[in-house]
Amino acid sequence: MQEQVIGPFLDWVARHQDWAGPVAFLLAFTESLPVVGFFIPGSALLFAAGMLILSGVLPAWPVLLGAGLGAALGDSTGYLMARHWGPGVVRRHLPRRHWRLYARARIGFRRWGLWAVFLSRFFAPLRAFIPVVAGLSGMRHWHFQLANLPSAVVWAPLLLMPGQAVGWFSGTVSEEHLPIVLLTMSGMALAAWRLLKRPPSHAVSHALQVRKRGLRKSP
Length: 219
Fold this sequence. Notes:
By secondary structure, the protein is mostly helical. The chain has twelve helices and no strands. It starts with a helix and ends with a helix. The protein has helices at residues 2-15, 20-31, 42-54, 60-85, 88-93, 99-120, 124-127, 130-136, 141-160, 162-172, 178-197, 202-217. Residues 40-164 form the VTT domain. Keywords: Cell membrane, Membrane, Transmembrane, Transmembrane helix.
């Protein structure tokens, strides 16, 4: 399915280079929106656009800026929507099969709020989900943006220009500090993964059971 979309997309964006920045913004923005983001292959299309950047067909800066701004605003939109609606919308509309994932995310935010927002940018299944949990958990706006904005700045070049990004990183970080930086980043990614894989605590499990019984009794 993605192959059928990527080919025409590359042909179109190569012929309309002036629209490359806005298109990158739209793809990154929609992929970061709750629910909608699960159906938009934005990362695959942006990665394909990055190949055109490497070959010199597309200008780098408009696409990088568009993708970074779109990702940051998309996550901010999901966060603000969740803050406005509140936890009540989850209790009314979240399918039961997702309650356990929601409980794990709430637990994660009590321990790793900033890192959960930052790292979720680099995992497609979580990208459109974690900002919503941040809003529902009552995370402060400036705390959210403290993780959201830097993650968008890092994510865009890593996705669009991975070769250049790695080259810049290796040239910026000294050789003696490189193992420490890589180990630290690997440790943070592993901690986030293990945190999301942990079963919810007894208190959260009990709350979920109470919620299930309440929904069964409701007309």
